[in-house]
Amino acid sequence: MKKRALVVCPGRGTYNAAELGYLQTHHAARSDLIATVDAVRVAMGQVPISHLDSATKYAPSVHMTGDNASPLIYACAMADFAAIDRDRFDIVAVTGNSMGWYLALACAGILDLAGGARLVNNMGGLMHQQGAGGQIVWPIVDNDWQIQENKILFIRNLLAEAKAVSKIKIYVSIRLGGMIVLAADEAGLKWLMERLPKDDRFPLRLMHHAAFHSPLLNHIVPIARAENQSSDFGRGDIPAIDGQGRIWSPGAFSRAAIYDYTLGAQLTDNYDFTRAVQVAAAEFAPDTIIVLGPGTSLGAPTIQALIASGWRGLSGKADFQARQQDAPILISMGMADQRIWAESEIVHTNKR
User: Would you say 91 and 109 are in contact if contact means Cβ atoms under 8 Å apart?
Assistant: First the structure.
């Protein structure tokens, strides 16, 4: 009997030095998929993602910028999605974090592979060229991944205080499981770094990131709509859950509506990844959550969102780790020892 699977797509910060060569290592046999993404890049006069992935050395100034990182992550994630064993898994829904919404659209069949590549490439380049401000990450959980109400209150008070300062602009950008991502202009970023309590490596400013999912990107909307055609959007094959926790069921929405959200509120309003995961888990009752690669940073926020909602009685990090030993709740395809739980035997054979 097939297991019901929720697929979660990664966001922008997931192709780092450890992921260099991801396509070569895991998807050398998927030349057609890689060629489709490369063709979009070549048509725009850009370096093919296959060349970026096969570089001898990781260069942050090249691999981390939005114009290159976005299509690289798209190709890696879509190849991972194609590698999932459909004989063992029934994919009942897809969602994603931030840029992962574009990937979810492609996984859901709302965009085809080339259409998704165009959207991701256009938006990655646009954010790189005309993005404003930046993002800072700060944790709101304890060591057992329990939400700390005092930290939530601290953020609320901090935002209220920021409103009284006329020279800065600060917004909640993403609710990311056990973390809050704040978007701000340059003055706001400096103000936040001075006021957020230090906790290990946090507060963490995300390099090469604009103030995604905030009004600071209002100017991007008309440009994005000019560069991306609504005709690329279709009816879909799999339900997709967006950053407001809304379900887009196959054939049950208009092209205009999903286009307006994707190139409208999705850019300028906060992205609630926590709610997206919680809605997907509650409405589609998955047996397993499969997080696509590259990278491994989205696994913890996904489980933290489920802990916060008490999904299947999940009570904390220790509880999750204990259950993971018996029957995996979450499969992270960015981890070599876990991706084999999701891949088909054909994929294993091609790698040998």
Answer: no
